[in-house]
Design goal:
Chain lengths: ~140, ~450
């Protein structure tokens, strides 16, 4: 079973969406490793090391995602996770910004996939399957 | 029912506790120097003679069981993957089994670290790494390294179950002594202590005490069954939980201030009591033990000194106490016994410091996070603020002239709002040092052991 690390990054306590993601991915046959709310980059990375997860999915709903996610790819590289996929989604920036700019900024930070507000986990399932090569 | 004799082979003293099962009480206690270098039986017989003399007659015991921390105790190396996760889990298993964790290694181990295992004369190696279904590459690498080395210590594998076939292949072809156990961290942040801990205990009884020359004593007593700290943990758990309809004390904490180490035990869930606290990190064991190897009244008195800031030392200087000199003196004279008023004042300062710092390291901590929802807290470790009983033991506490004040002041949470220390516990003292003996007795007679503890561990 493939493992996916999920959680809400930074000083963000929004727990409902986190539960929905856990529920949905578990139903789809993944081993979901949920680090929960108020999680640091290290929490995500340590979990991915121990569980050999090929994908880390970062949620952020409170607008400070850009600050919280900065440097995460570098830390993954440092921790030996250079092939791990990084997804991020939610309300990841402050205010209403052109999403094209936002996506570019996060991709420059090393995130593989960046999702705008209003994206549900169901809409991403096909991409996950494609990226991870299906459920074993 | 008759009489039981409980023996504790310590690093310095062999301590005996004789129990009358009928009366549910202690008949007598005695001690003599441990003689593991020559023949461990000699020290035991001296202690027994002392005991007979004290009681005024000889007794035929129905059963004699022992625990041991002689000949360096049980020295373990804990190996894991990530420091905060499987390495920490492995370390907690070792401590729960009553071991001294002399070496903690994470990630891929190297030749230098293998050499440390040899140099430190490690008795048992606990090899963990990876949650089940997770990383197996690292733990296999580490097993391979151990296989290639001249290490003969038994290896307990308690890592990712997916790796176990490969590990068995590697270690058996290298003809190592090894045991396969359940993973210490089967899922992220889930701690699974029991299986590996019980296996370590078995290996201790079967292999380690023999190698250390302790097994000889089984010619005249029944069995050596536990490492001493494990016996204390068993006793503390019994005293906390109670047995059948005999109530326990509820959540408890215990401080044992020795010459070389300060051990803290807590028997409590330690879930958050603070409104906005979120629990983070690896799960905590219900019965938790921590050992501070740098805090002790004699061998480790220099560690106490190191824990003090120059301003602390100056503060004592104003009270005509040269703490630096006193610590060095105690380190060099480990058999020092306090006599004068001044000696007792210094002992008080040092013991208080040992408990204070050891408790700080044992209890959970809060760290504040400013969120758009207001101030929130991360809680790492156990919240022990509501612990109802705090028990003190060890020479420095027992010999103290006012143990209640000592414990109260050492535990004080003034200026330490983020440390989750017990707030208003009742204070107790284990005056006769019976906890390890009661842990041993509880294996056959838990009810009697519990009643004796409730009688003999006195509320201050």
């Amino acid at each position: 079973m493939k493992s996916i690390v999920i959680g809400v990054i930074g000083a963000d306590v929004h727990a409902v969406g986190n539960r929905i993601i856990e529920y949905t991915l578990t139903r789809e046959g993944y081993n979901v490793v949920n680090v929960g709310v108020l999680s640091s980059q290290e929490d995500f990375i340590n979990a991915a090391i121990e569980t050999s997860a090929p994908l880390i999915m970062v949620s952020s709903l409170y607008g400070h995602g850009e600050l919280d996610c900065r440097g995460m790819r570098d830390k993954c590289n440092e921790a030996g996770l250079k092939d791990v996929l990084l997804y991020v989604g939610g309300n990841i920036v402050v205010g209403k910004q052109d999403f094209k700019d936002v996506e570019k900024r996060f991709k420059d930070m090393g995130f593989d996939r960046v999702y705008p507000p209003g994206t549900t986990i169901d809409m991403v399932l096909d991409t996950i399957k494609q990226d991870l090569g299906g459920v074993e | 029912m008759g009489c039981y004799l409980l023996v504790d082979f310590g690093s310095t003293f062999t301590k005996l506790t004789a129990v009358d099962l009928e009366k549910e009480d202690i008949i007598g206690t005695s001690k003599a120097m441990t003689t593991v270098e020559t023949n461990i039986i000699e020290g035991y017989q001296h202690a027994l003679a002392n005991l007979y003399q004290q009681i005024g007659k000889t007794i035929v015991f129905d059963k004699i069981v022992a625990c041991s921390s002689a000949a360096g105790g049980l020295k373990m190396a804990a190996i894991g993957l990530v420091e905060e996760l499987t390495t920490e889990a492995a370390k907690r298993v070792c401590l729960g089994a009553g071991a001294k964790v002399d070496l903690v290694l994470s990630h891929h181990i190297n030749n230098q670290e293998l050499q440390q295992i040899l140099d430190k004369k490690i008795d048992i190696i606990l090899l963990a790494g990876g949650a089940n279904g997770g990383n197996s590459e690292c733990v296999i690498h580490n097993a391979q390294k151990l296989a290639e080395s001249n290490i003969t210590a038994p290896i307990v594998f308690a890592g990712n179950k997916d790796a176990s076939d490969e590990i068995i292949r590697i270690l058996s072809s290298a003809q190592k002594t090894f045991f396969i156990c359940e993973n210490v961290m089967p899922k992220l942040n889930v701690l699974n202590i029991n299986d590996a801990r019980d296996r370590i205990k078995d290996i201790f009884v079967k292999n380690i005490i023999e190698a250390k020359g302790i097994k000889k004593v089984e010619a005249i007593i029944d069995r050596v069954i536990l490492p001493t700290p494990h016996a204390v943990l068993v006793a503390a758990e019994l005293l906390s939980k109670g047995f059948d309809d005999e109530k326990g004390l509820g959540d408890i904490m215990l401080a044992d201030v020795g010459g070389a180490t300060t051990d803290i035990y807590s028997i409590a869930d330690g879930l958050p009591t603070h409104m906005n606290a979120m629990l983070t990190g690896l799960e905590e064991p219900f019965a938790k033990r921590t050992v501070e190897g740098d805090l002790g009244m004699r061998y480790s008195s220099l560690g106490i000194l190191q824990s003090m800031t120059p301003s602390d030392i100056a503060h004592y200087g104003h009270q005509q106490l040269d703490i630096e000199k006193e610590c060095i003196y105690r380190h060099e004279h480990v058999d020092f016994i306090p006599e004068s008023n001044h000696d007792f004042i210094v002992e008080d300062v040092l013991a208080k410091r040992c408990i204070d710092v050891a408790v700080k390291r044992h209890v959970g901590h809060l760290t504040s996070v400013y969120t758009p929802m207001g101030m929130m807290y991360h809680q790492t470790g156990k919240d022990l603020t509501n612990v109802s009983s705090f028990i003190g033991t060890g020479g420095a506490v027992i010999a103290h002239r006012d143990p209640k004040t000592l414990l109260q002041e050492a535990l004080s949470s003034d200026q330490k709002a983020m440390e989750l220390r017990p707030k208003h516990p009742d204070y107790y003292i284990d005056q006769d040092y019976i906890l390890s003996a009661m842990g041993l007795l509880s294996i056959d007679y838990p009810m009697i052991a519990l009643r004796i503890m409730k009688k003999r561990i006195i509320k201050l």
